[in-house]
């Protein structure tokens, strides 16, 4: 069995995304360099990797701000409180808070590189 350890966002705006995720995740990065940043979470590490550095390792394999298919999902204690807080940050909300059929109460928003983020809380489903 494998274990997800990192989710890396390759970007040409490491500084901007560092500030965004610092505010959204309400934590300081565990690693913070001009070309690479890590935010440790209870599940896996979210890292921001400079596109130029990635290009040196794997030329032509990544394009910054081109993702429209992967969603970063974070379980939070109180999704309604997080929704109010994240809205105050002025981020683009994609889907307002709703309770989904499978028992998550969630909202979706985007980071400055257009990556989709889901904050959710598991809620008790009906009988």
Task: Write a structural description.
The protein is of the alpha/beta class and 127 residues long. It contains 3 helices and 8 strands; from the N terminus they run βαβββαβαβββ. A 4-stranded mixed β-sheet has the order 1-4-3-2. A 4-stranded mixed β-sheet has the order 5-8-7-6, covered by helices on one side. Strand 3 and strand 4 form a beta hairpin. The chain starts with 5 loop residues before the first strand and ends in a 5-residue tail after the last strand. The mean pLDDT is 95.
What is the topological layout?
Layout: E1 6-11, H1 14-25, E2 31-32, E3 36-40, E4 45-50, H2 51-57, E5 71-75, H3 79-88, E6 93-99, E7 104-110, E8 116-122
Parallel strand pairs: 1-4, 5-8
Antiparallel strand pairs: 2-3, 3-4, 6-7, 7-8
